[in-house]
Write a structure and sequence with these properties.
Largest sheet of chain A: none
Strand content of chain A: under 5%
Order of helices and strands of chain A: HHHHHHHH
Largest interface: A-B, 35 and 36 residues
Radius of gyration of chain A: 20 Å
Number of helices of chain A: 8
Distance between the termini of chain A: 26 Å
Shape of chain A: elongated
Helix content of chain A: over 70%
Oligomer: homotetramer
Structural class of chain A: mainly alpha
Number of strands of chain A: 0
Chain lengths: 215, 215, 215, 215
């Protein structure tokens, strides 16, 4: 397949940019009659906090997956038909995030909303894992001398989020708040440098990309 | 015309990315009074399945056409004014897909909605065929030694979908469900490797792009 | 100013892609009660024709200006602060087109709607002319040996549309239909090859870009 | 981190393009009954002036920050994880602008709306300053022989807007109009060439990018 990595990247960057910006459409300006505006607007805005929080979490988690996708692509030399369609499937889930975010922000305490939001993020994560698995199995689309540690480390790091989301959905049967806190914490795992950064830190300047850079 | 292929690709990727992401705006979060949310939300979400299915089908078919367009462009060396405007016409139909998808998901059993959706996809397919015809006739914009098999094979593959959509629209007079199933099956023809893949498989590594890669 | 042409092009392609795709949001799916859908939907869809026509005209005219902008940029070697801000001003008018299109499609017979739509397109055209004037005056940002015929020809071609839009607005005092027909015809002037194409046709292959290619 | 500057630029250009174009969705076409349209539409459109003004100011200020971000990036040689996440944070605030613009245009005289709009722009400005601070401290991601004047000048220029916005919010306790005028004036500081342009003018052609080019 001659479809270049550039093309896939352009579509991916576009879908992520639109999905991230569409999230804001869920935060609606409160409607108030003019005489009440000055008095009631501050409270009405405060009442929007679940919307703002959902926006923040979804925006950042989309950022995490955008980074993860592009770092995977940076290892991939060629593309073929199945890889391309794994990418389209990945974008299909990404473009759903504005819906599941709006659902969660509207029904934050409702189990089904928590499950749908989690399922959407699990689907994104598993598709990204599938993408990595397909590209690296028998070094199908990556450099044959890629270090197996890197391949496995990247896979573990990619699967970390879906595992937590499954736990979060399960814990919603105990208390909805636990799930929501877990959702909020996941991005931190990918943003904050973790143990893996320290472990690989020394070699950082020798190898072009390290295990810890995957997502 | 000096307008580079890059420019056309950038606008195309942008329109596709926006159109694919706007599809989600048709899936609206159900509105329920707080006391009812826990009890009724699951059913309300299940009732959205025609929206989800339409989203899925339209997203994937847009993916098919995005791939098809870019593979065509990868053969094209130059652009002139008519080719550019065929591209704009192609994007005009692509950008209509969120409307016709919303229409179909709202009135899935209604013949006119089935016809409008099909007509939109037929228009995309025929414009893509026109694009290929214009570019390849007398090797206007492609390499003069392009293999005629490839030119014809690509054309057949491009016209396959519009032909099925015409049949699907006709069969809506028998039963709406048949049309919908055909709509859902078309993307599979382009995603799954078919007979053509096997036929060309042996030569794959000799020629840079094969007939089977067109769309 | 080191801000590269690439950056300006990326933002421009993005704004055009979004504006062109947002146009479709103005075409709303008719809302009908289920029992009436089969019977009334065809008529309701036909009643949307002013929306479809506005979509078509605005999409194509945005295509015209997208082409015009990029052909201008292809002559420009450097950018400075004023040129950059002329570009932002150009995009500001472009991004307004979904609004003025929605206004026109809602109030097609009303003089003020015709005037606002025309004024928006005039603003786009004049800003594009200003862009060309600023870049070419004393060969500020173009090759010093650019042919003066090309500079003037491009300017005339760019100003052609605003002049017709002024006439169209004036004629709305006679009959609204005349204005609408003129709006629909303007893109054809830029799509169809005109006298200028024939005039320059012979030299086409000697010079890299001809006067007739501007817009 | 191997994630290239290109990738960051593509996502940034996409988010800016979408955010700038979504601003127009806040300007709604007035709804009037047909018999009244001709008579009342002009007044209804005039009544939209706060929407148009907000659109104008927000579009231009987004332009200012887009320019600022890209000029910063043009100095940056490498990216690492923290820099990447500062970028995502920057985009998170940028994508909020359509919301805070809609809020301000609806409640232009209300202190809380003025404060939210100002806070959003302050957040953008401070994140951009953080971006510059992080990249330039100990020449972490910039050329080690970058001139300290340039580093400090760029920082001052970046912080100028947030300082004015703080003052504007404070002055809303005196009169809302003063805040709004300050909001409208800030972009001019970055568009119009200022004292800094004259000061650095002479050296302009010797150094590739000057202090005055930062934002």
């Amino acid at each position: 397949m001659q479809l270049s990595r550039n093309r896939i990247e352009a579509l991916t960057d576009g879908v992520f940019a639109v999905a991230m910006t569409l999230l804001v459409l869920d935060i609606k300006v409160p409607e108030l009659e003019p005489p009440l505006a000055t008095a009631e607007l501050p409270l009405k805005l405060l009442a929007l906090w679940p919307k703002f929080l959902s926006y923040l979490i979804s925006f950042v988690i989309l950022g995490v997956y955008w980074v993860g996708h592009h770092i995977q692509l940076s290892f991939i030399r060629r593309a073929d038909r199945p890889l391309l369609w794994i990418n389209v499937l990945f974008l299909l889930w990404v473009a759903l995030v504005p819906f599941s975010t709006a659902l969660l922000s509207e029904y934050a305490k409702t189990r089904i909303a928590i499950a749908v939001y989690g399922a959407n993020l699990i689907a994104i994560g598993l598709t990204l894992a599938l993408h990595w698995w397909y590209a690296t199995t028998e070094a199908r689309h990556v450099d044959p001398d890629i270090h197996p540690h890197l391949v496995r480390g990247a896979m573990k790091r990619t699967l970390m989020a879906p595992v937590i989301y499954v736990i979060a959905i399960a814990l919603s049967f105990v208390r909805a708040e636990i799930s929501l806190i877990l959702y909020a914490l996941v991005p931190l795992l990918y943003i904050l440098p973790g143990r893996i950064d320290i472990h690989w830190g020394a070699r950082r300047h020798d190898k072009p990309i390290d295990q810890d850079e995957i997502i």
